[in-house]
Design a protein that fits this description.
This protein is of the alpha+beta class. Strands 1-2-4-3 form a four-stranded antiparallel beta sheet. The chain starts with a helix and ends in a 22-residue tail after the last strand. The protein has helices at about 5-20, 35-45, 65-80, 90-100, 120-140, 155-160, and strands spanning about 55-60, 105-110, 145-150, 165-175. Helix content is about 40%, strand content about 15%. The chain has one domain (about 25-175): NADH Oxidase (3-Layer(aba) Sandwich). The chain is globular.
Length: about 200
């Protein structure tokens, strides 16, 4: 047993967890994310915990022209679902730009177990765990990621080609970046834990 290597592996894992954070599309560079790296992220997502092995996570990877379709669909949704006097040109532009600033956008979807053998919240939690796996690998690879849950996600069935049992839970924007590595800001974990011993 090589304790030194085990300690290094643990330290590396903890560092990756602490350095995981949202990096937004405006910080992405034009350098494309390699397909092999995206595949590695998705393969890692597949090892998330899943009650009764329902494996409810589904992902739609949008690149190229698909990003333009997503951009226009999200912009159209904003225009159609915002009072005319409340429409912000700045927000409209940002809505259009986010997919186009990304090397890829991964639609995070859930395929509900047809037998409903577990509560829906457990399926959502499993998908979230899959995204965390994916995000940690992205962090380790130096790739920026950001999970967004706009209200327009519920209107993207056609753009994403969703099965009737699939539900979109948001979009994971991906891109290379030059942001410095920084630990996430959190209050002490001890403040969120109670030890119940009696």
């Amino acid at each position: 047993m090589n304790t030194s290597n085990d300690d290094q592996d643990l330290h590396s894992l903890l560092e990756t967890i602490r350095n995981r954070r949202s990096i937004f599309p405006q910080s992405f560079t034009e350098v494309p994310v390699r397909r092999n790296d995206i595949e590695l992220m998705l393969a890692s997502a597949n090892y998330a915990p899943t009650h009764r092995l329902t494996q409810p996570w589904r992902f739609k990877v949008l690149q190229g022209k698909a990003l333009h379709r997503l951009s226009e669909s999200m912009a159209q949704y904003y225009l159609e679902n915002t009072d005319e006097e409340s429409i912000s040109e700045k927000k409209l532009l940002k809505t259009r730009q986010k997919p186009l600033q990304s090397s890829a956008v991964i639609a995070i979807c859930m395929f509900r177990d047809p037998a409903e053998s577990v509560p829906e919240w457990e399926e959502v939690a499993a998908v979230a765990c899959a995204v965390q796996n994916m995000w940690l690998v992205a962090t380790r690879l130096g790739i920026g990621g950001y999970w967004s849950t706009p209200s327009s996600k519920d209107a993207m069935t056609e753009v994403l080609g969703l099965h009737e049992a699939e539900k979109c839970l948001g979009f994971f924007y991906l891109g290379n970046h030059k942001m410095p590595r920084m630990e996430a800001k959190r209050s002490a974990w001890q403040d969120k834990v109670n030890w119940l011993e009696k």
